[in-house]
Protein backbone atom coordinates (compact mmCIF):
# COMPACT_ATOMS: atom_id res chain seq x y z
CA UNK A 1 0.00 0.00 0.00
CA UNK A 2 2.90 2.36 0.69
CA UNK A 3 4.36 1.56 -2.73
CA UNK A 4 1.00 2.33 -4.36
CA UNK A 5 0.62 5.63 -2.50
CA UNK A 6 4.17 6.56 -3.51
CA UNK A 7 3.48 5.77 -7.16
CA UNK A 8 6.33 3.25 -7.23
CA UNK A 9 5.25 0.89 -10.01
CA UNK A 10 8.54 -1.00 -9.94
CA UNK A 11 8.21 -1.75 -6.22
CA UNK A 12 4.59 -2.83 -6.74
CA UNK A 13 5.71 -5.20 -9.50
CA UNK A 14 8.50 -6.65 -7.34
CA UNK A 15 6.13 -7.22 -4.44
CA UNK A 16 3.59 -8.93 -6.66
CA UNK A 17 6.31 -11.13 -8.11
CA UNK A 18 7.27 -12.04 -4.54
CA UNK A 19 3.74 -13.30 -3.88
CA UNK A 20 1.98 -10.35 -2.27
CA UNK A 21 -1.81 -10.57 -2.61
CA UNK A 22 -2.87 -8.21 -5.46
CA UNK A 23 -6.29 -7.89 -3.81
CA UNK A 24 -4.97 -6.84 -0.41
CA UNK A 25 -6.83 -3.98 1.30
CA UNK A 26 -5.67 -1.06 3.37
CA UNK A 27 -6.84 -0.15 6.88
CA UNK A 28 -10.05 1.33 5.42
CA UNK A 29 -10.95 -1.77 3.42
CA UNK A 30 -9.86 -0.24 0.13
CA UNK A 31 -8.50 -2.85 -2.32
CA UNK A 32 -5.11 -2.21 -3.87
CA UNK A 33 -6.50 -1.50 -7.33
CA UNK A 34 -9.04 1.01 -5.98
CA UNK A 35 -6.27 2.72 -4.04
CA UNK A 36 -4.12 2.91 -7.18
CA UNK A 37 -7.04 4.45 -9.09
CA UNK A 38 -7.34 7.13 -6.40
CA UNK A 39 -3.65 8.04 -6.78
CA UNK A 40 -4.21 8.80 -10.50
CA UNK A 41 -1.12 6.73 -11.33
CA UNK A 42 -1.69 4.85 -14.58
CA UNK A 43 1.60 2.93 -14.39
CA UNK A 44 0.67 1.46 -10.99
CA UNK A 45 -2.85 0.67 -12.21
CA UNK A 46 -1.42 -1.11 -15.27
CA UNK A 47 0.88 -3.15 -13.02
CA UNK A 48 -1.99 -4.26 -10.78
CA UNK A 49 -4.27 -5.04 -13.71
CA UNK A 50 -2.10 -8.04 -14.53
CA UNK A 51 -3.32 -9.93 -11.47
CA UNK A 52 -5.84 -7.96 -9.36
CA UNK A 53 -9.59 -8.65 -9.47
CA UNK A 54 -10.86 -6.09 -11.93
CA UNK A 55 -14.27 -5.38 -10.40
CA UNK A 56 -13.62 -5.80 -6.70
CA UNK A 57 -15.39 -2.92 -4.96
CA UNK A 58 -14.17 -0.92 -2.01
CA UNK A 59 -15.96 -0.52 1.30
CA UNK A 60 -18.11 2.21 -0.26
CA UNK A 61 -19.36 -0.21 -2.93
CA UNK A 62 -17.62 1.49 -5.85
CA UNK A 63 -15.66 -0.64 -8.31
CA UNK A 64 -12.30 0.62 -9.63
CA UNK A 65 -14.07 1.75 -12.83
CA UNK A 66 -16.67 3.82 -10.97
CA UNK A 67 -13.90 5.37 -8.87
CA UNK A 68 -11.94 6.27 -12.00
CA UNK A 69 -15.02 7.91 -13.53
CA UNK A 70 -15.76 9.77 -10.29
CA UNK A 71 -12.15 10.99 -10.36
CA UNK A 72 -12.43 12.16 -13.97
CA UNK A 73 -9.38 10.06 -14.84
CA UNK A 74 -9.82 9.41 -18.56
CA UNK A 75 -6.61 7.43 -19.03
CA UNK A 76 -7.31 5.07 -16.13
CA UNK A 77 -10.95 4.65 -17.16
CA UNK A 78 -9.75 3.60 -20.63
CA UNK A 79 -7.29 1.12 -19.14
CA UNK A 80 -9.95 -0.51 -16.95
CA UNK A 81 -12.48 -0.77 -19.77
CA UNK A 82 -9.78 -2.13 -22.06
CA UNK A 83 -9.20 -4.95 -19.58
CA UNK A 84 -12.91 -5.77 -19.46
CA UNK A 85 -14.26 -3.85 -16.46
CA UNK A 86 -18.04 -4.28 -16.06
CA UNK A 87 -19.95 -1.26 -17.37
CA UNK A 88 -23.17 -2.19 -15.59
CA UNK A 89 -21.95 -2.05 -11.97
CA UNK A 90 -23.71 0.70 -10.03
CA UNK A 91 -22.76 3.10 -7.26
CA UNK A 92 -24.76 3.79 -4.10
CA UNK A 93 -27.03 6.18 -6.05
CA UNK A 94 -27.80 3.50 -8.65
CA UNK A 95 -25.69 5.07 -11.41
CA UNK A 96 -23.78 2.88 -13.83
CA UNK A 97 -20.64 4.05 -15.65
CA UNK A 98 -22.53 6.04 -18.29
CA UNK A 99 -24.93 7.67 -15.83
CA UNK A 100 -22.10 8.65 -13.48
CA UNK A 101 -20.06 10.22 -16.28
CA UNK A 102 -23.14 12.08 -17.54
CA UNK A 103 -23.92 13.32 -14.04
CA UNK A 104 -20.46 14.87 -13.64
CA UNK A 105 -20.55 16.35 -17.14
CA UNK A 106 -23.94 17.96 -16.71
CA UNK A 107 -23.39 19.11 -13.13
CA UNK A 108 -19.94 20.58 -13.73
CA UNK A 109 -16.73 19.59 -12.00
CA UNK A 110 -16.40 22.68 -9.82
CA UNK A 111 -20.07 22.61 -8.81
CA UNK A 112 -19.83 18.96 -7.77
CA UNK A 113 -16.56 19.59 -5.92
CA UNK A 114 -18.21 22.33 -3.90
CA UNK A 115 -21.28 20.19 -3.22
CA UNK A 116 -19.21 17.28 -1.94
CA UNK A 117 -16.82 19.31 0.17
CA UNK A 118 -19.16 22.10 1.28
CA UNK A 119 -16.27 24.54 0.93
CA UNK A 120 -16.38 28.01 -0.66
CA UNK A 121 -12.57 28.30 -0.96
CA UNK A 122 -10.84 28.92 -4.30
CA UNK A 123 -10.34 25.72 -6.28
CA UNK A 124 -6.73 24.69 -6.83
CA UNK A 125 -5.90 24.01 -10.48
CA UNK A 126 -3.02 22.46 -12.35
CA UNK A 127 -2.65 21.08 -15.86
CA UNK A 128 -1.75 17.40 -16.17
CA UNK A 129 -0.27 16.12 -19.42
CA UNK A 130 0.31 12.55 -20.52
CA UNK A 131 2.62 11.16 -23.17
CA UNK A 132 0.13 8.44 -24.13
CA UNK A 133 -3.00 10.54 -23.78
CA UNK A 134 -3.84 14.23 -23.91
CA UNK A 135 -4.12 16.88 -21.22
CA UNK A 136 -6.64 17.82 -18.57
CA UNK A 137 -6.92 19.96 -15.47
CA UNK A 138 -6.63 18.59 -11.95
CA UNK A 139 -8.87 20.42 -9.49
CA UNK A 140 -8.46 20.29 -5.73
CA UNK A 141 -10.75 21.53 -2.99
CA UNK A 142 -10.37 20.54 0.65
CA UNK A 143 -9.29 16.91 0.71
CA UNK A 144 -10.89 16.06 -2.64
CA UNK A 145 -9.04 16.01 -5.97
CA UNK A 146 -10.59 15.25 -9.36
CA UNK A 147 -9.63 15.71 -12.99
CA UNK A 148 -11.66 17.25 -15.79
CA UNK A 149 -11.93 14.14 -17.93
CA UNK A 150 -15.64 13.54 -17.44
CA UNK A 151 -16.74 14.83 -20.86
CA UNK A 152 -14.11 12.67 -22.55
CA UNK A 153 -15.17 9.66 -20.49
CA UNK A 154 -18.83 10.21 -21.31
CA UNK A 155 -18.04 10.58 -25.01
CA UNK A 156 -16.04 7.35 -25.11
CA UNK A 157 -18.70 5.44 -23.17
CA UNK A 158 -21.77 6.46 -25.18
CA UNK A 159 -21.05 4.23 -28.23
CA UNK A 160 -20.57 1.26 -25.89
CA UNK A 161 -24.13 1.80 -24.67
CA UNK A 162 -25.51 2.26 -28.19
CA UNK A 163 -25.87 6.04 -27.81
CA UNK A 164 -25.32 8.14 -30.96
CA UNK A 165 -24.53 11.67 -29.84
CA UNK A 166 -25.36 14.45 -32.35
CA UNK A 167 -22.47 16.15 -34.15
CA UNK A 168 -23.27 19.56 -32.65
CA UNK A 169 -23.26 18.16 -29.11
CA UNK A 170 -19.82 16.60 -29.62
CA UNK A 171 -18.58 19.88 -31.09
CA UNK A 172 -19.90 21.77 -28.05
CA UNK A 173 -18.09 19.41 -25.68
CA UNK A 174 -14.80 20.04 -27.45
CA UNK A 175 -15.28 23.80 -27.63
CA UNK A 176 -15.87 23.91 -23.87
CA UNK A 177 -12.14 23.13 -23.48
CA UNK A 178 -10.00 25.81 -25.19
CA UNK A 179 -6.88 23.61 -24.96
CA UNK A 180 -7.01 21.49 -28.12
CA UNK A 181 -4.73 18.91 -26.50
CA UNK A 182 -7.41 18.16 -23.88
CA UNK A 183 -8.65 14.55 -23.89
CA UNK A 184 -12.11 15.60 -24.98
CA UNK A 185 -10.82 16.86 -28.33
CA UNK A 186 -9.43 13.46 -29.20
CA UNK A 187 -12.47 11.52 -28.03
CA UNK A 188 -15.08 13.68 -29.77
CA UNK A 189 -13.26 13.67 -33.11
CA UNK A 190 -12.51 9.96 -32.81
CA UNK A 191 -16.14 9.08 -32.13
CA UNK A 192 -17.14 11.00 -35.25
CA UNK A 193 -14.36 9.30 -37.22
CA UNK A 194 -15.95 5.97 -36.32
CA UNK A 195 -19.10 7.14 -38.14
CA UNK A 196 -17.20 7.47 -41.43
CA UNK A 197 -19.98 5.66 -43.30
CA UNK A 198 -22.41 8.53 -42.55
CA UNK A 199 -22.01 11.24 -45.25
CA UNK A 200 -23.63 13.77 -42.93
CA UNK A 201 -20.60 13.64 -40.60
CA UNK A 202 -18.17 14.50 -43.40
CA UNK A 203 -20.45 17.29 -44.63
CA UNK A 204 -20.85 18.78 -41.16
CA UNK A 205 -17.09 18.73 -40.54
CA UNK A 206 -16.33 20.25 -43.94
CA UNK A 207 -18.87 23.04 -43.35
CA UNK A 208 -16.87 24.24 -40.33
CA UNK A 209 -14.03 25.48 -42.58
CA UNK A 210 -15.81 28.81 -43.06
CA UNK A 211 -16.65 29.45 -39.39
CA UNK A 212 -15.09 32.56 -37.80
CA UNK A 213 -14.09 30.65 -34.64
CA UNK A 214 -10.70 28.96 -35.26
CA UNK A 215 -11.54 26.24 -32.73
CA UNK A 216 -14.55 25.23 -34.80
CA UNK A 217 -12.36 25.14 -37.91
CA UNK A 218 -9.81 23.05 -36.02
CA UNK A 219 -12.49 20.59 -34.96
CA UNK A 220 -13.68 20.18 -38.53
CA UNK A 221 -10.13 19.67 -39.82
CA UNK A 222 -9.40 17.06 -37.15
CA UNK A 223 -12.54 15.06 -37.93
CA UNK A 224 -11.66 15.04 -41.63
CA UNK A 225 -8.01 14.16 -40.95
CA UNK A 226 -8.75 11.23 -38.69
CA UNK A 227 -11.51 9.94 -40.97
CA UNK A 228 -9.06 9.72 -43.86
CA UNK A 229 -6.08 8.56 -41.81
CA UNK A 230 -7.87 5.59 -40.23
CA UNK A 231 -9.87 4.57 -43.27
CA UNK A 232 -8.97 0.94 -44.04
CA UNK A 233 -10.80 0.50 -47.33
CA UNK A 234 -8.80 -0.20 -50.47
CA UNK A 235 -10.57 2.52 -52.44
CA UNK A 236 -9.39 5.39 -50.14
CA UNK A 237 -12.69 7.22 -50.69
CA UNK A 238 -11.80 10.17 -48.46
CA UNK A 239 -8.31 10.89 -49.79
CA UNK A 240 -9.20 12.93 -52.88
CA UNK A 241 -12.05 14.87 -51.22
CA UNK A 242 -9.76 15.74 -48.29
CA UNK A 243 -7.10 17.15 -50.61
CA UNK A 244 -9.76 19.05 -52.56
CA UNK A 245 -10.80 20.72 -49.30
CA UNK A 246 -7.42 21.19 -47.66
CA UNK A 247 -5.37 22.70 -50.49
CA UNK A 248 -7.36 25.95 -50.78
CA UNK A 249 -8.10 25.95 -47.05
CA UNK A 250 -4.48 25.81 -45.85
CA UNK A 251 -3.52 28.59 -48.28
CA UNK A 252 -5.85 31.03 -46.53
CA UNK A 253 -5.85 29.67 -42.94
CA UNK A 254 -4.54 32.29 -40.45
CA UNK A 255 -4.64 30.21 -37.26
CA UNK A 256 -1.54 28.06 -36.68
CA UNK A 257 -3.44 25.34 -34.81
CA UNK A 258 -5.77 24.81 -37.75
CA UNK A 259 -2.80 24.95 -40.12
CA UNK A 260 -1.12 22.17 -38.05
CA UNK A 261 -4.12 19.92 -38.60
CA UNK A 262 -4.43 20.74 -42.30
CA UNK A 263 -0.73 20.10 -42.85
CA UNK A 264 -0.91 16.80 -40.99
CA UNK A 265 -3.84 15.78 -43.18
CA UNK A 266 -1.94 16.60 -46.36
CA UNK A 267 1.12 14.77 -45.05
CA UNK A 268 -0.91 11.58 -44.56
CA UNK A 269 -2.83 11.84 -47.83
CA UNK A 270 -1.93 9.53 -50.72
CA UNK A 271 -3.12 11.91 -53.44
CA UNK A 272 0.03 13.21 -55.22
CA UNK A 273 -1.34 16.77 -55.13
CA UNK A 274 -0.91 16.73 -51.35
CA UNK A 275 2.81 16.06 -51.59
CA UNK A 276 3.22 18.86 -54.09
CA UNK A 277 1.92 21.35 -51.52
CA UNK A 278 4.34 20.38 -48.72
CA UNK A 279 7.56 22.14 -49.88
CA UNK A 280 5.80 25.52 -49.68
CA UNK A 281 4.46 24.68 -46.21
CA UNK A 282 7.99 23.99 -44.96
CA UNK A 283 8.42 27.79 -45.13
CA UNK A 284 5.30 28.57 -43.07
CA UNK A 285 5.64 31.18 -40.31
CA UNK A 286 4.68 28.65 -37.64
CA UNK A 287 7.41 26.21 -36.58
CA UNK A 288 5.07 23.28 -35.96
CA UNK A 289 3.57 23.64 -39.43
CA UNK A 290 7.09 23.62 -40.88
CA UNK A 291 7.97 20.55 -38.80
CA UNK A 292 4.90 18.61 -39.91
CA UNK A 293 5.41 19.59 -43.54
CA UNK A 294 9.06 18.61 -43.69
CA UNK A 295 8.28 15.33 -41.91
CA UNK A 296 5.94 14.48 -44.77
CA UNK A 297 8.49 14.88 -47.57
CA UNK A 298 9.68 11.25 -47.38
CA UNK A 299 7.75 9.88 -50.36
CA UNK A 300 8.75 12.78 -52.59
CA UNK A 301 12.38 12.46 -51.54
CA UNK A 302 12.35 8.74 -52.30
CA UNK A 303 11.20 9.57 -55.83
CA UNK A 304 13.95 12.15 -56.26
CA UNK A 305 11.69 15.21 -56.27
CA UNK A 306 14.03 18.23 -56.49
CA UNK A 307 11.61 20.62 -54.75
CA UNK A 308 11.28 18.27 -51.79
CA UNK A 309 15.06 17.88 -51.60
CA UNK A 310 15.59 21.64 -51.69
CA UNK A 311 12.99 22.14 -48.96
CA UNK A 312 14.53 19.49 -46.67
CA UNK A 313 18.04 20.87 -47.18
CA UNK A 314 16.84 24.39 -46.41
CA UNK A 315 15.11 23.30 -43.18
CA UNK A 316 18.33 21.82 -41.76
CA UNK A 317 19.17 25.46 -41.08
CA UNK A 318 15.79 26.34 -39.54
CA UNK A 319 15.71 28.47 -36.39
CA UNK A 320 13.68 25.80 -34.58
CA UNK A 321 15.48 22.66 -33.39
CA UNK A 322 12.44 20.40 -33.86
CA UNK A 323 12.23 21.46 -37.50
CA UNK A 324 15.95 20.83 -38.02
CA UNK A 325 15.60 17.36 -36.52
CA UNK A 326 12.60 16.62 -38.74
CA UNK A 327 14.61 17.73 -41.76
CA UNK A 328 17.37 15.27 -40.84
CA UNK A 329 14.79 12.52 -40.54
CA UNK A 330 13.31 13.41 -43.94
CA UNK A 331 16.72 13.38 -45.64
CA UNK A 332 17.07 9.73 -44.67
CA UNK A 333 14.58 8.98 -47.48
CA UNK A 334 16.79 10.53 -50.15
CA UNK A 335 18.28 7.74 -52.32
CA UNK A 336 22.00 6.98 -51.91
CA UNK A 337 24.10 9.37 -53.91
CA UNK A 338 21.54 12.20 -53.74
CA UNK A 339 23.54 15.39 -54.09
CA UNK A 340 23.92 17.26 -50.83
CA UNK A 341 21.86 14.94 -48.59
CA UNK A 342 24.68 13.28 -46.64
CA UNK A 343 26.75 16.47 -46.49
CA UNK A 344 23.78 18.36 -45.04
CA UNK A 345 23.42 15.68 -42.37
CA UNK A 346 27.13 15.89 -41.61
CA UNK A 347 26.83 19.66 -41.21
CA UNK A 348 24.18 19.06 -38.52
CA UNK A 349 26.64 17.06 -36.39
CA UNK A 350 27.75 20.35 -34.88
CA UNK A 351 24.23 21.56 -34.11
CA UNK A 352 23.70 23.23 -30.73
CA UNK A 353 20.81 20.84 -29.98
CA UNK A 354 21.69 17.28 -28.98
CA UNK A 355 18.57 15.75 -30.53
CA UNK A 356 19.49 17.23 -33.91
CA UNK A 357 23.07 15.95 -33.64
CA UNK A 358 21.90 12.44 -32.75
CA UNK A 359 19.28 12.39 -35.49
CA UNK A 360 21.85 13.47 -38.07
CA UNK A 361 24.43 10.95 -36.83
CA UNK A 362 21.97 8.07 -36.88
CA UNK A 363 20.72 8.94 -40.34
CA UNK A 364 24.30 9.04 -41.60
CA UNK A 365 24.94 5.63 -40.07
CA UNK A 366 21.88 4.25 -41.82
CA UNK A 367 23.36 5.57 -45.06
CA UNK A 368 26.64 3.72 -44.25
CA UNK A 369 28.38 7.03 -43.66
CA UNK A 370 30.62 6.91 -40.52
CA UNK A 371 30.93 10.66 -40.04
CA UNK A 372 28.44 10.67 -37.17
CA UNK A 373 29.94 7.81 -35.20
CA UNK A 374 31.70 10.11 -32.72
CA UNK A 375 28.34 11.63 -31.77
CA UNK A 376 26.73 8.21 -31.32
CA UNK A 377 29.64 7.00 -29.19
CA UNK A 378 29.16 9.84 -26.70
CA UNK A 379 25.62 8.78 -25.72
CA UNK A 380 25.49 7.43 -22.19
CA UNK A 381 22.24 5.50 -22.33
CA UNK A 382 20.51 3.57 -25.07
CA UNK A 383 17.92 1.85 -22.86
CA UNK A 384 14.21 2.13 -23.61
CA UNK A 385 14.09 5.17 -21.32
CA UNK A 386 16.39 7.01 -23.72
CA UNK A 387 14.59 9.31 -26.22
CA UNK A 388 16.92 7.91 -28.88
CA UNK A 389 16.38 4.22 -28.11
CA UNK A 390 14.43 3.21 -31.20
CA UNK A 391 16.49 5.33 -33.55
CA UNK A 392 19.72 3.79 -32.24
CA UNK A 393 18.14 0.35 -32.37
CA UNK A 394 17.62 0.89 -36.10
CA UNK A 395 21.32 1.71 -36.44
CA UNK A 396 22.31 -1.39 -34.46
CA UNK A 397 20.15 -3.68 -36.58
CA UNK A 398 21.37 -2.02 -39.78
CA UNK A 399 24.97 -2.67 -38.84
CA UNK A 400 24.38 -6.23 -37.64
CA UNK A 401 25.68 -8.98 -39.93
CA UNK A 402 23.14 -10.00 -42.52
CA UNK A 403 20.95 -6.92 -42.03
From TrEMBL:
Which UniProt keywords are present, listed alphabetically?
ANK repeat, Repeat
Q: Which PROSITE patterns match?
A: ANK_REP_REGION, ANK_REPEAT
Q: SUPFAM superfamilies per the record?
A: Ankyrin repeat (SSF48403), ARM repeat (SSF48371)
From which residue to which does any coiled coil extend?
none
Instruction: Report each ANK repeat as a residue range.
Output: 1-27, 60-92
Please name one Pfam family that this protein belongs to.
Answer: Ank_2
PANTHER family, sorted: ANKYRIN REPEAT AND PROTEIN KINASE DOMAIN-CONTAINING PROTEIN (PTHR24198), ANKYRIN REPEAT-CONTAINING PROTEIN-RELATED (PTHR24198:SF165)
Query: Which protein, by its recorded name, is this?
Result: HEAT repeat protein
| Annotated source species | Kitasatospora gansuensis
